[in-house]
Specification:
globular, 7 helices, mainly alpha, Arc Repressor Mutant, subunit A
């Protein structure tokens, strides 16, 4: 790995190490494996399922479509993960009384217990990751992350990247897109 980039390198990237999204990905990879092992190995739920359990613990009963929006997931993946959580008896579903197409979901008592057991461990990992970073730097990091979220949302809304991934056809796993061909 090259020297860690500075602001100038991030604003005019010349290598992979100078790309903001790559740096964020490296930071996530360095720490998220521990959380994944804890969630999947210790509690038998996937990372996506844990996100749903965490969100449901915060917001209570909600339409599955709203849950998908809150977690920035597509409805198909949300539905599959919710199905798995229902089979594990961690989430309960019920049809909407007015619109039968809508499904409401909430944590079951088992799901609430799983959250109560797992959240303190995940929170402790997060606290340990921040150990040695002073409060001013953490506040700065949070400010920057919020700005990045807002800017990413702006660019997405404007259609900054016109290409679309066609996952129905397997994306690029089955073909290599040739530009100009």
């Amino acid at each position: 790995m090259q020297a860690f980039p500075n602001a100038g390198a991030l604003r005019a990237p010349r290598s992979l190490d100078d790309l903001l999204l790559y740096r964020l990905s490296c930071a996530i990879r360095a720490s998220s494996g521990m959380a994944i092992r804890m969630v999947e190995g210790g509690f038998g739920v996937t990372r996506r399922e844990w996100g749903m359990i965490g969100m449901l613990s915060q917001i209570g009963e909600v339409k599955s479509s709203v849950l998908a929006e809150r977690l920035h997931l597509d409805r198909v993946r949300t539905s599959r993960s919710l199905g798995s959580l229902v089979r594990k008896k961690l989430v309960e579903r019920r049809q909407d009384a007015v619109d039968g197409r809508e499904v409401h979901v909430r944590l079951s008592p088992s799901g609430q217990q799983l959250f109560a057991d797992l959240f303190p461990r995940i929170a402790s990992l997060n606290v340990d990751l921040l150990d040695g970073i002073d409060a001013a730097h953490i506040d700065g990091l949070l400010h920057c992350l919020r700005r990045l979220e807002l800017r990413g949302s702006e660019l997405n809304a404007r259609g900054f990247v016109p290409e679309k991934a066609d996952r129905r056809l397997g994306g690029t796993r089955h073909r290599w897109p040739r530009h100009g061909a």
